Amino acid sequence: MATNVLFCLGLLIIAIGIMLFFRKKKLYRDGIRTIGKVIEIETYTYLNQGPEFNTVYYIGITPIIEVEDRGKKIRIAYNSIDDYSNLSKGDEVEVIYPKGKVEELLICNEKELYKGPLSVGLVGLSIIILALILILV
Question: Mind telling me which residue stretches traverse the membrane in this protein (predicted)?
């Protein structure tokens, strides 16, 4: 019974990975591409108190990208799990976003197109392999 649940869970996760891939592919095909300029690099630090009085510091940077959409200049704090720490003030980057949704801006990088969906798909495949191993044992 548990193996069937694991197998179905793996299939579901693979299906989610495929949906993410086609959503990103559609964005790259139909999205608005433009050049954005990094106008500022915002740094932040916050701390988290652990249960045993351990303090964990989180430090990060967020590039502020300015793009022009329908004649207006818009500033977006680009928060992404991708590493863009090599950006500096004044850099120009190619960005893409869905029409009318500039807040969903992404830095164009064709290699990144496959990274997220492929990672999700590999997790699903790993769960399916685990389920098959449990069936055989």
Answer: 6-23, 118-136
